[in-house]
Amino acid sequence: MPRGRQSCLGVIYCRDFQGLPKAYRINIWEQVALAARIFEEGCAMKITEIKPILCQGGIRTWTFVKVTTDLGIIGWGDASEWLRAPAHSKIIEEDLTPLLIGENPFDIERLWQKMWTASYTGGKDLSVAMTGVETALWDIVGKALSVPVYNLLGGRCRERVRLYYDNCDAYGSGFAGGYTWRKGDTSLEGIAKQAQYIMDQGFDALKLHPVGLPERPAVSRSISLKAISDTVAKVRTVREVVGDKVDIAIDINNRLDLPSSMALAKALEPYQMMFLEDPIRQDESPGSYKRLVDSTSTPVGTGENLYTIWDFRNYLESGALDLVLPDVCHVGILQAKKIAALAEAYHLPVAPHNPNSPLSTIISAHLCANIPNFLALEYMSTEMEPPWRDKVMKPPLGAMIKDGHLELPDAPGWGVEIDEDEVAKHPHVEVWYAGLRGWEGLTVK
Ligand SMILES: [Mg+2]
User: Fold this and answer.
1) Which residue in 14, 146, 418, 431 has its CB near the most CB atoms, within 10 A?
2) What is the reported pTM?
3) Considering the domain 150-415, what is its CATH architecture?
């Protein structure tokens, strides 16, 4: 770039989603220099480095993936899955990086197929690791072409992305005001206060969890009558607070057998749930989901532990779901787009799972803005997040959320950048969770 021209700013005038005039400030010389290189080299960019970066995001580990190219364009991807983050990091470094160095980041479909078929078995850990890289490639392509990723997917069906607030299980829980996790008030009074708190922030959808189930690991998957009654009382409490202004989902986290799932779904019918999530382990039998769906008017969804179009096909072909809940940052943009299209063919809505990182929320939101059959995106409540959440990404996630909706930035790629210096202050630590233990007393730095 010519000396003295680094700050040569220009303005592009165009129209926003509603057709209103809008101005964007850009660095003209940066854009011209980049366009010239892409034109000269025919998009023949090459991946030169892939680097997973683990960050202890409060109660969860966030896995950011930084992909560098020979044109100097850096893409950020996300592979946040908190149970086995070091394993995903290792797969990226040892298995995927040798496959991808020197490849053209524009060839996303071909590279996905290359990574997938290079493995003999597939599976969750591979899918999550691949997603970390794949999502970074979308960021690179968006930046190279100076367009937001949603415009690479076919544009937006909606300007704002509806979020559902997870969770409504306690009032006053979290790290807010300190660095040690506290559980909050889980009484019905506390639940009612939390429902009001969520509604007051403008959210029109929320999620809660059942009460009275045995702690994990538990051999039995049967639910007691008292647990059903207590869970129904919790849902009723929320419904009484929010009326018909807020949709309510409940997540069972794979913990019930079929008769218990049927009994709970039936008991919840009067409360017109948005969905019942993951009552039965989804890696075991679509047939059991089919029997459950046929037994109740409560909508049943699953998907956070399904990773490909082939996993979802087995459910959709047999009519075993009322809606699909894939995790965009566990399956990747390409698979998520295809899964949403499969669901669309069966007239089913999509509500992506997303208890991951701030970047994961942005990546998921690009897909949610695009697909026609979007219902709502999971948003991990701020009290579940560390107090420094909004420092790791620019612009910060909190600044994009208004009235329970996420307003995506319109900068190229994902429209955000990860602050590596800030991330480095919170390195991954082998802690507590392992998917089984509670969070009470957990201290984050
Ligand atoms: Mg779930």
Assistant:
1) 418
2) 0.90
3) Alpha-Beta Barrel (3.20)
